[in-house]
Amino acid sequence: MAVTPFGSWRSPITAELLVAGAASIGEVVVGTDDVWWSEARPEEGGRVQLVRHRPGGRTVDVLPDGFSARTRVHEYGGGAWWLHGDDVVFANAADQRLHRLAGGADHPVVLTPPTGRQHADRYADGRFTADGRWFVCVRERHPDDGAEPVNEIVAVRVHPDGEPVDATVLVTGADFYAAPRPSPDGTRLAFLRWHHPDMPWDGTELCVTRLYDDRPLDAVVTGEPVVVAGSRDESVTQPEWAPDGALTFVSDRSDWWNLYRIDGATISAALDGVGAPAIGAETGAVSESALALAPIEAEIGLPHWVFGDSRYAHLADGRILVAWYRHGFDHLGVVDAGVMVPLTSPFTEIASVRAFGRGAVLVGASTTSEAVVAAIDVPETPDLDGSTPVTVAVLRPARDLGLDPRWFSVPESFEFPTTGDRTAHALFYPPTNPDFVGPAGERPPLIVMSHGGPTSAARPRLALGVQFWTSRGFGVVDVNYGGSTGFGRAYRQRLHGAWGVVDVDDVVAAARHLVARGDADADRLVIRGGSAGGYTTLCALTFRDVFAAGASHYGIADLAALARDTHKFEARYLDSLVGPWPEHSDLYAERSPINRTADLDAPLIVLQGLDDEVVPPNQAEAMIAALESKGLPWAYLAFEGEGHGFRRAENIRRALEAEAWFYSRILGFELADDVEPVEIANL
Fold first, then answer.
1. Residue 236 in contact with residue 204, Cβ under 8 Å?
2. How many Å apart are CA 586 and CA 507, to the nearest integer?
3. What's the mean pLDDT in 7-27?
C-alpha cells in the first residue's frame, strides 16, 4: 500500500458513483400476489417512481412519464401512495392531487379537484376502505389568505362518476392527524391526532370511531371518536388492526417505544360510551387495559417525521414480526405468546415491514450493502437465544457498485462521556482504503456529522456519502447526541429547552473522545450537518473553539426567523427545544449563531436550496454576510429548484465535490479527484 497523506487518497467512490443508477427505496406495499415499492431517483430529477415485482421475479415501472408519487404534507411527506388489489392511488408531486391508476390502465385518472392556488390541497397516509370504494387519508389544506393550513381526515371517492368532487371530511378539529386506518371489516376507523405545541414524538392520542358507509347517499361518515391511548406525555405511533379485531400500536409509556394491544371487545365497549375527551385529557380505563406485548428495553417505534413508517407486521400465523433498535443497530424479532424472540438477519437498518404470504417483506440495509427489498420467511420455532436466522429472498437488489468490500468502512457503535456526567452515543467510521495508508505518526482528519431533526438518528448502513470521505482518508463520526431517537424517551427529552447546548456538548465530546483515543488529529476536526444538524454545526463553530472548518447544508442560523417563518408542522417545535416564542426571545437571540458572529473564527461552506420552505435561503444568506464582514474564508452554493434536501443528481454531485475541495484548501492537502473548484472568499 502507498503511503499518502490523509485526505489525498484516490478512491473509486466518487460523487458520480453516489448518484449513478442510484435510487432511494421508500415504502413497500403488498398487492394481491405481488410486491410494490417506491424509488426516488436522482438521475430523474428526484422523481419518485413506483415499481411492481410480479410473481416470477419480473419488475416493471408503474407510473408513466410526467408522474411522481410524492406528497408535501408536513413538507417532509411520506405515505404518498397505497394499493387495493391492482389499483393504486397516489399523490402526484407536480399538482399534489390524488390520482388513481387502475390495474391494466395506461394513464392515471385524477380523483381530487383542482385548487385556486398551487399545492393548496395536499394528501398523505391513505388507506382504502374494505370494499375499495373510498380512500381515507390526511388532507392538508392551505387557505388562500395565507392563514395556517388546516389538517383533517377525509374520504375520497375512488371510482367517481364524472368530474372529481371535493373530499368528504370525516374528522377535524385537531391541529394534526396521521395514520387513518379503517378496520378490515369496514366498521371502525383508528387514527392519531395531536395539537400545538406538541410534536408527535412528544405526545399523541390514538382515537377510534365508528365508520359508516351510507350507500343511498354514496357517502362515508363517522361517529364520535373515543381516545383509547396516548396523551401529551405519551407518544403513540403505527396503529394497526389485528385480524381478530384488536388494535395494536407502539407507545413510549415505559420510556421505550414498545408494542401494545387493546382487544376488540374493549374498543366496542368504549365506542358504546360517550364521545372523545378533550385533547390532552386522561384516556382512562381503555388505555390502562392495553396489554404490553413482549416489553423490551429497545425502540420499535420511530419519530413521526414522515408518514407511512412501518416497524411491525401481523403475520399470517398470528405472530408479529418487529424491527427493534438497540445500541445503534436494528434487529428483527418475532412476538409469540408474549415473548420477543430475537432473530438473526443480515440487516443493520430495517424499514417498511409488511406481512407477505406466510412471512413478510421489508427494506433492509447493512454496513456493507445499500438498501434492498427482501422477502422474509420467519422460522416457526426459533431458538430463544436469537441464533435462528431468517431466510431472505432479495426482490430488489442493491446496485452493483463493482467494489470489493475492503473499500467499505464498517462503523463501530460506541458510548462516550459528555457533560453532566452523562453518556452519549455515536457511530465511528475509520479511514479505510485498501490501496493507501497515512504517514507514520500522522493522525487522520475527522469529520463530525450532526444529523438532522434534531429528533432523528445516525443509522448504520452503507452510505456512499460517508464512504466518500473514509476512502479518502478521513475518519467520520456520526453522533447520536442527546435528543436522538433510539435510546428511549428520556434520552430524546435531554434536548428539551437545551437545543444548541446539549447537542453541541455531545458533538464536541465525541470529537475529543476520538482525539484522546488516537483516532483523530485535534487540529483537523471538521463538522458538517443539514437542517437541524446544520444548526448544531453553526453553533459548534460559533460557540466553541474546537473545529477547523465546517459545512452547513440548509442549516438554521437564526432561531427567531425559524420560529416566525417555518411551516405549520414545526411552527411550535421550538417551544420544547428552546422555549415559547416570543416570551423567550432573549434565549432565541442568545442561541442563534447569526447573533454571535464575533465569536466565529472557522471557515465555512454553505449549501442551500433556493426553494426551501423549511429553512428559507435568507438564513444562509445572512450567515454568509456575517462571514464576509469578518473576513473569514467562506463559500456559498445555492441550487435553483431544490428544496429542503437535494434531490437532483447534478446538484448532489456538485455539493459533495465542492465540500471536498473546500476542505482540501482549508486543511492543506491535495485532493486526488479532478473536480471543479469552488470559489472561496477571503482565503
1. yes
2. 25
3. 95
pLDDT in tens, 75-126: 999 999 999 999 999 999 999 999 999 987 999 999 999 998 889 999 999 9
Rounded CA separation 573/75 (Å):
14
**Could you tell me the pLDDT band of residue 507, with boundaries at 50, 70 and 90?**
very high
C-beta of residue 258 within 8 angstroms of C-beta of residue 292: yes
Q: Are 553 and 655 in contact (CB under 8 A)?
A: yes
Which one-letter amino acid corresponds to residue 458? Answer: A
Fold of 2-14+411-667: Rossmann fold (3.40.50)
Cα dihedral sign, 586-588-590-595: negative
pLDDT digits (tens, 9 = 90+) for 323-358: 999 988 999 999 998 899 999 999 999 999 999 999
For residue 91, what is the enclosing H or E element?
strand 87-91
Strand locations in 223-345, DSSP E? Answer: 226-231, 236-241, 247-251, 258-262, 291-292, 312-314, 320-326, 329-336, 339-343
Q: Of 193, 169, 189, whose CA–CA distance to 180 is shortest?
A: 189
CATH 3.40.50.1820-classified regions of the chain: 2-14+411-667
Name the DSSP class of 348.
Answer: S
- Dig out the grid coordinates for 65 from the structure: 412519464
**Mean of the per-residue pLDDT values of the chain:** 94
The two beta strands, 422-429 and 412-418, are: antiparallel
Per-residue pLDDT reduced to its tens digit, 188-213: 999 999 999 999 999 999 999 999 87
Contacts with 416 (C-beta within 8 Å, 6 or more apart), sequence order: 423, 424, 425, 426, 509, 510, 513
CB count within 10 Å of CB 313 equals 23
Judged by DSSP in three states, 517 sits in helix
Coil, helix or strand at residue 639: strand
Contacts of 210 (CB under 8 A, 6+ apart): 187, 188, 189, 222, 223, 271
Q: Which amino acid is at 473?
A: G
CA–CA gap between residue 569 and residue 72 (Å, rounded): 11
The single-letter code of the amino acid at 454 is P
